[in-house]
């Protein structure tokens, strides 16, 4: 495991969960009130305050930092609305890998609006919390996808950054040939190098856990399934559901195969004839379902955020766990702050670097 100064002592998962359940009543939401009588002009919002993370160092068995051997590229979007989740995800990756200095983080951020200074800078918060990291930031132009987005069942799924994963190969530098893409609502509780080392074989572009027991037909509308020409997209495949929030992507193969264009073509069909309801996921399924390299289910314990409408609590699926994923409407930081957490949210809490949450737990 990685070495870290001031590192938290390890504890059995069950004992940790019981401790956090007992502390849940102490969690509070701090509210800052600004006097309406003040004549001073309104100030732009400040990014949330986070504790500085320990400086994780490589174990003795790791290749030298900067060596191509053992190097891992991880890509995530950087969104002020999900910053607290991003912090926890990065923290969990660094804490559980033996070679944290060999992990390179690539953040996809929306291009800044030159006429607005009202949004807090999430990159500044990342650098302050992890001062020893040297993350790469790649600007994603929302206008590239905005005209292609169709309204889905949840507003958050309609945001341009939710579609940035489609453009990874166009956004990342050419030197990046393979990348792990992760959503901001995950925590990794195993060495990310194991996921990185998955064998994509001679032709696969994406590797991810797939779920062939899921009802695949529900991801598309009756208008899709009743159209013989459209449903023929799956004619020579046995399509299975997979979640695009955890993927290993061969970026070079994605570029060569023109997969961005292929996904965009299905988004264009959706604009003409509504064939799905769930944001960026269905066009991925249309292009890749049944043609990915399966990964052990332990690498995406997904659905912990509940469904996309109400976000009701869900329990863990049986089996070993390497990655916890709060896909769905409910996010653990929001449920903890509202004092209405689900049991699984206490598994996320130890990675929360938000200062207000830490103070409440200490009290």
TrEMBL record:
It is found in: Endomembrane system. This is Hexosyltransferase. It comes from Zea mays. One of its GO terms (molecular function) is glycosyltransferase activity. Transmembrane segments: none annotated. Residues 58-69 have a biased composition (Basic and acidic residues). Residues 1-26 form the signal peptide. PANTHER family: GLYCOSYLTRANSFERASE 8 DOMAIN-CONTAINING PROTEIN, HEXOSYLTRANSFERASE. Keywords: Glycoprotein, Glycosyltransferase, Membrane, Signal, Signal-anchor, Transferase, Transmembrane, Transmembrane helix. Residues 36-69 are annotated as: Disordered. Belongs to the glycosyltransferase 8 family. Pfam families: Glyco_transf_8 (PF01501). The keyword Oxidoreductase does not apply. Its EC number is 2.4.1.-. The keyword Transmembrane helix applies. InterPro entries: Glyco_trans_8, Glycosyltrans_8_dom-fam, Nucleotide-diphossugar_trans. It is an enzyme of class 2 (transferase). It is a single-pass type II membrane protein. Gene3D superfamilies: Spore Coat Polysaccharide Biosynthesis Protein SpsA, Chain A. Pathway: Glycan metabolism; pectin biosynthesis. GO terms for cellular component: Golgi apparatus.
């Amino acid at each position: 495991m990685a070495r870290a100064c001031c590192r938290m002592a390890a504890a059995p998962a069950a004992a940790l969960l019981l401790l956090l359940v007992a502390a849940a009543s102490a969690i509070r939401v701090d509210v800052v009130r600004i006097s309406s009588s003040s004549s001073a002009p309104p100030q732009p919002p400040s990014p949330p305050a986070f504790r500085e993370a320990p400086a994780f160092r490589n174990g003795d068995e790791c290749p030298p930092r900067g060596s191509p051997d053992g190097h891992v590229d991880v890509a995530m979007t950087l969104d002020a609305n999900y910053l607290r989740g991003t912090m926890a995800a990065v923290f969990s990756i660094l804490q559980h890998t033996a070679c944290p200095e060999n992990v390179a983080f690539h953040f996809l951020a929306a291009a800044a609006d030159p006429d607005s200074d009202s949004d807090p800078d999430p990159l500044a918060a990342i650098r302050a919390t992890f001062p020893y990291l040297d993350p790469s930031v790649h600007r994603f132009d929302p206008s590239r996808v905005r005209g292609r987005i169709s309204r889905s069942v949840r507003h958050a799924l309609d945001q341009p950054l939710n579609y940035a994963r489609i453009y990874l190969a166009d956004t990342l530098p050419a030197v990046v040939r393979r990348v792990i893409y992760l959503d901001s609502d995950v925590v990794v509780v195993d060495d990310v190098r194991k996921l990185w080392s998955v064998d994509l074989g001679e032709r696969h572009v994406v590797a991810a856990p797939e779920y062939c027991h899921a009802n695949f037909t529900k991801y598309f509308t009756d208008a899709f399934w009743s159209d013989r020409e459209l449903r023929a997209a799956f004619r020579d495949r046995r399509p299975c559901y997979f979640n695009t929030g955890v993927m290993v992507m061969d970026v070079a193969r994605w570029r060569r195969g023109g997969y961005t264009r292929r996904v965009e073509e299905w988004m264009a069909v959706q604009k003409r004839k509504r064939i799905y309801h769930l944001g960026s996921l269905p066009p991925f399924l249309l292009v890749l379902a049944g043609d990915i390299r399966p990964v052990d289910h332990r690498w995406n314990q997904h659905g912990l955020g509940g469904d996309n409408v109400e976000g009701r609590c869900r329990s863990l699926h049986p089996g070993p766990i390497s990655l916890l994923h709060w896909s769905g409407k409910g996010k653990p930081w929001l449920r903890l702050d509202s004092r209405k957490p689900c049991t699984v949210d206490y598994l996320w809490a130890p990675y929360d670097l938000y200062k207000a949450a830490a103070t409440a737990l200490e009290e």
